[in-house]
Amino acid sequence: MAVEQEIVLTVRNLSKLYGPGCPDCLSLTGPEAGTNICPRCHTIVACNGVSFELESGEILGIVGESGSGKSTLVRCLYFDEDATSGECCFSAFGDGRANAFAQTSQARRYIRNHLLGIVYQNPLMGIKPHFTAGGNVAEKLLTADVYNVSAIRQRAAALLERTEVPLARMDDFPAHFSGGMQQRVQIAKALANNPPVLLLDEVTTGLDVSVQARVLDLIKEIQQDLGIAMLVVSHDLGVIRILADRTAVMQHGQVLEFGLTDQILEDPQHRYTQLLVHSTL
Amino acid sequence: MSATVNSAATPARQPRGYNFAFLDENTKREIRRKLLKAVAIPGYQVPFASPELPIARGWGTGGLQITMAIIGPEDVLKVIDQGCDGSVNAVNIRNLLVKTTGVDTTFDTTAASIVQTRHRVPEEPMRADQILVLQVPIPEPLRYVEASEAKTREMHGEMDYSRMWVYLYENIVQYGEISIGARYPSLVNRRYLMDPSPIPRWDVPKLSMSPTLHLFGAGREKRIYAVPPHTLVEPLEFEDFRFRVEEFSGRSCLRCGATDTYMNELFDRVSGQKLYACSDSGYCDKRRAAQERRAD
Fold this sequence. Notes:
- Helix content of chain A is 38%, strand content 23%.
- Chain B has 296 residues and is α/β, with parallel strands linked by helices.
- Chain B starts with a helix and ends with a helix.
- The N terminus of chain B is likely disordered.
- Chains A and B meet through α3, α5 and α6 of A and α6 of B.
């Protein structure tokens, strides 16, 4: 573990505010204040000074209750939402020093299409139900500038096979698939451009237990085989325990505790983490 | 101000009660301004302010307004509809323009200075001193894949055409080829995706690097766009599924015998045969006349 790892993603002081905002928003909210709503201007502080580094090939877990800001964090990193302040640097973009949040929308689109993959909790946010399963994977490849139909089909078939979607259904519409299968199509799509960073937002929530287990196995396998760095967001400590090497615990928009997953689960330091760990075990 | 300027230039044949070319000068100026912008940004759809018109929108009013804004008393006009000088839409638009301007008209592409067209680019190559005005029903190529105008504008802004590509991919998966006949989405100047109006695929390569100025007007949607002379127009194609024009091999025009033109299919109910004739009637007539001269 002591081997020096390359850092693929650095996030510094990421904050996301919904509302007018005032100079005291960040200081008057957070775990100590017990709220993420600024008492002065009623702005919702979804993320408050979040910083972390993601190493190549590792899985970083982010755990926290509903409304703690974990999904907002992921959405900001995928540029679905504009971060209010903070920096985000990808090692594969601009020598790893350019702040992705400050780039033009074209450059952000490039980062999104070439350097990122995302799997949302709701598969229909990530895939289009009225494109075929193959077409959905193709979309990601086309955004990454692959313009060869047979190459696209080969790659799509390989990915769908990998994610256990029957190839016979490659040219069917995900609108007619089960939830678990839609989720696997979404994972195939997210992997299509071989992204160095994959964002997973509550991927197993809403799936039944046996399907959950297979999706988790799949994610673990993909990480081991392809060495993709992943950010796994979940409110489920079980998922975090299985997947994550390191874990950050979030509450009211701030990171409370950050460390090796085992350490956090076995010896939680912060009171909130202790509560979280003990209430689930 | 415009009334005094124009009354001096009014040709004798023009009836009273109209400005030259029907539109008032301010409207023409608005359209010309937007034409300049369209030419400056090839393939970009420029919105324009449009007045009430003497014919219903959707009947070629986009092309008509452009023609009215650029036409002068010295121009020679040709108007075609589906390649034909004699169909209803072409005749009515030509009559309206002649009535309000008094310009000369022609059926001969090479003799015209302005050609207004619906659904075809003339077979004979056009020159740098000519302008082709196309009537456009649906200016937005992304309308196939995105219903919202706000979204499509954003997609153009970011040059995000992946959904159009997926549409073409799905087409290939479903039919084994790209099934779009007319309105084939094409990239202008390596930047903007353009709907080349419903011209057949046959005509799309003619727009690329042509010496002629092509102006596109959509009256209902109030959009103007342009392919300036010597501008690259590239139909979207995959590396292994190339863009193809329509296939007419082994067929010839029943009137003039041409084998290298875009042809209409005619069905003879008596013999049960399929017959073919040039879609560009002006070109077909010209070939026949030349053949007759040779025969004499």
